[in-house]
Amino acid sequence: MTAIKIYNTLARDKQTFVPMQAGKVRMYVCGMTVYDYCHLGHARVMVVFDMVQRWLRASGLDVTYVRNITDIDDKIIKRAVENGESISQLTQRFIAAMDEDAGALGVQKPDHEPRATQYVPQMLGLIEKLEANGLAYKAGDGDVNYSVRDFPNYGKLSGKSLDDLRAGERVELNTGKRDPLDFVLWKAAKESEPAEVKWDSKWGKGRPGWHIECSAMSCELLGEQFDIHGGGEDLQFPHHENEIAQSEGANRHPFVNYWMHNGFIRVDNEKMSKSLGNFFTIRDVLKKYDAEVVRFFILRAHYRSPLNYSDAHLDDARHALTRLYTALKEVAPDSLSLDREEPYAIRFAEAMNDDFNTPVAIAVLFDLANEVNKNKSPVLARQLKGLAGIIGLLQRSPQEFLQAGASSSDQGLDEAAIAAQIEARAAAKKAKNFAEADRIRADLLANGIVLEDKPGGITEWRRA
Question: In whole angstroms, how far apart are CA 98 and each of 65, 88, 103, 283?
Fold first, then answer.
């Protein structure tokens, strides 16, 4: 098997992937903080690392994939108090919504989906180790902080030096930190906070800081050192840098071998953010576009590149995916298994093995579709569907996709109304009233419905 190469953020280079244990991969990805609906940035993380784990498995590797859920933090507490509901009611509602969104996008469930609130004892154990190693201290305000300057390798993931960080640090008032760079491991309980976010500890009642949860959960489920840690580019600093400091500071050996980060989503070339008002939830986008179109749109860009979101780009993705499905509509795949030694499959694998280069892999799918259209080969149609299936595409019936309702040009005509119009057009043609037949075709096209007349008087339709 050709070696898989991964761009390792820690090494700032593309490296041949060598699992710690032959044939097995342990991978952890930072998941969602569940106080609101998931947005497109979350969609990219979910789809990208779903693609990664799918390809690793398709390459014959035994993968243990962990993606956590942050179900306790300041934003969650604030939102629950505002809503007048318990933390668990709020988080359970948004976990259910996240699962719906992920399922719609074809994202397979991770092997483990730990929630922070279930791992507080492990977090406390890690903090105790850090304290014993001289890297954690209880401050005057009751918080337990990490002493950044006492960890010599701080900054190795992000490439930031302590002096650079110190120069850019805002002055914090009324804090018990010894150094502004120090970060909180355990937050002392506040009177105003609900009882359900107060855990007992040797330092008094409180709750974990954000960074400690991923160190504790990953080490508990995958071991103190594992193969791949992933997440969005925005987590590289400080979250992942702090995870390294905590895990290596406590355990005194390397934490993760390969760090992977996906790029930002931008909206009309500006970074997506709530402050700019260009912020889209997954469910808002899915009201307008088919979920597979959104998945295809994400995978058509390399995972490390910025991804520019706009209606025009989604429309273009829809038209492109329509071309692939149309090839399968015209030529049914044969029933044999995917041939991994066939030339298109080899090219596809070469692209995926080169740091999961989905744009090149998808270009192979279009080459295959062109050959299917030319040669009408069921063998090549099978290869097209099989290769696309590895990354979670082209697994519906072509008719289902081509007639799917969610699209930016869909004006709301349902299937019964379309069928009635097609019947009326057939009657007009039979009566030689071709002007009426043309008018019906034009009206349907204006509503985003394309008619295709086939031999034998059959008329098929698809969304434009």
Answer: 18, 15, 8, 10
Residue 444 and residue 418 in contact, taking contact as beta carbons nearer than 8 Å: yes
How far is it, in rounded angstroms, from Cα 256 to Cα 260? 10
What phi and psi, each to the nearest 5 degrees, are found at residue 70?
-85, 110
Superfamily holding 5-265: HUPs (3.40.50.620)
From first to last of its 464 residues, the chain has per-residue pLDDT tens of: 679 999 999 999 999 999 999 999 999 999 999 999 999 999 999 999 999 999 999 999 999 999 999 999 999 999 999 999 999 999 999 999 999 999 999 999 999 999 999 999 999 999 999 999 999 999 999 999 999 999 999 999 999 988 877 755 554 555 689 999 999 999 999 998 999 999 999 999 999 999 999 999 999 999 999 999 999 999 999 999 999 999 999 999 999 999 999 999 998 777 776 667 777 999 999 999 999 999 999 999 999 999 999 999 999 999 999 999 999 999 999 999 999 999 999 999 999 999 999 999 999 999 999 999 999 999 999 999 999 999 999 999 999 999 986 444 444 678 888 888 888 898 888 888 989 888 988 888 888 888 888 887 888 888 87
Query: Cα–Cα distance between 26 and 45 in angstroms, integer?
Result: 17
Give the closest residue to 204 by CA, choosing from 261, 265, 139, 153. 139
Q: CB of 145 within 8 A of CB of 175?
A: no
Q: Which of 398, 134, 159 is nearest to 259 (CA)?
A: 159
411, two tokens = 């004006």
Pick the CATH number of 318-401 from 1.10.3720.10, 3.30.1490.100, 1.20.120.640, 1.10.10.10: 1.20.120.640
* Residue that is written with structure tokens 């990664």 in the block: 52
Q: Are strands 307-309 and 265-267 parallel, antiparallel or unpaired?
A: parallel
